[in-house]
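Entry 12.
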Amino acid sequence: MAKQEDVFKKIVSHAKEYGFVFPSSEIYDGLGAVYDYAQNGVELKNNIKRYWWEAMTLLHENIVGIDSAIFMHPTIWKASGHVDAFNDPLIDNRDSKKRYRADVLIEDEIAKIEEKMNKECEKAAKRFGDKFDEAMFRQTNPRVLENQKKRDELHARYEKAMNDNDLAELKQIIVDYEIVDPVSGTKNWTDVRQFNLMFKTQMGSSADSTMDVYLRPETAQGIFVNFLNVQKTGRMRIPFGIAQIGKAFRNEIVARQFIFRMREFEQMEMQFFVRPGEELKWFEFWRETRLRWHKALGLGDEKYRFHDHEKLAHYANAATDIEFKMPFGFKEVEGIHSRTDFDLSQHAKYSGKKIQYFDAELNESYTPYVIETSIGVDRMFLSVMCSSYEDQQLEGGDTRVVLHLPKALAPIKCAILPLVRKDGMPEKAHEIMNMLKFDFACYYEDKDTVGKRYRRQDAIGTPYCITVDGQTLEDNTVTLRDRDTMQQQRVAIADLPAIISQECSLNNVLRKLM
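Predicted 3D structure (tokens):
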């Protein structure tokens, strides 16, 4: 675990050093859990969003997009339940004066127990080699069985306390399992209490006419309140979906793990409206469809898993998370939820407007059920960075840091590098760049040796480097270097667009989803 934590620290440092993510307001000592996307980060982030948007709106004829406002009528959040129930269970340590989410402390304790079991299995696997039967080992090893029992008992108590909203029991679990404050190392805890996560502000032209409004904690409600507008103007027929990418805001007290949990973040959500009674069929469809979207990037199928919810939200009848193996464990990157007709029914109730769909095939009106797919852009960004980062040992004892980003998502697709800054090579390099830049994000660099420039481009994940040398001026060929293999080949300048397009086109990834 310590080694993985060291890797994560390197990734965070790398993200800043190479222009992916900066701490926000850094010259003023920063603002907790708020980050700025830098020049390379914003390109990677935009490419992720484009991949999601086109997978939704281009590949599905019955899904359209909207962009709803961040500020919405405050009654919307009353109808959705956020005013009364959007809370986290918080606990303070009296010695460190730090505040934590009680559920996160308990989940971390469960993860520690699971890590002990995994380490026992890893040691046994090294000892027995190919003969090792992990399933049998987990069923028979006394230390694993002891930890499994401890884990199951803790998990059962935790699950019941969360389902019952029993704050006193959450505190008692922390006491009984002697969970300590990571900062002070003490167990001097306060009682657990609820804390609403929404940011509140005022809207109005004068102090006497202001009303309380909220920064939206999710983007989904903007879709629900526009259901009729989209359905009627788009002449949409059930089943159909509405997609949206946008900012959301939550006053996270325990914001941590870099951009994994932030106070200002971005969501990619799609709400899919279906006939009542067909929702679980569509839930399974979107469950598999979304996992296929993730795996198409080639980050490693083994890094994904489903985690079905044991505690369902009050509005849901099915829910699962797609989790990705981060350096700090498997964590949620996307949720798929069957929200029933809760949202549309609530907005009909609170607005006094009839929100129904007339189904011509059934000759009846009804309130549609909803399947939601919701993915955090920032978490997706982090999963791509973590799976792509490598401290690579090369032959001869040399090393390099390389980002094996999916080529279609890379911020820069090719770097054009004149061998020297003379003899017409810079002019030829600019000519090549002017040819390519209308189709691909390109970067021109002529400082330092070519070897050093290769290393810099490896570190930001550029798939190809194009070197212009003396031979280029004679026969219009260049050296094309591949980021992952470091192999070089001589190719004609005229062939560059086809080669780069073949390897870096987002369309090639999208075709895997068909």
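Annotation: The radius of gyration is 26 Å. Residues 404-511 form a domain with the Rossmann fold fold (CATH 3.40.50.800).
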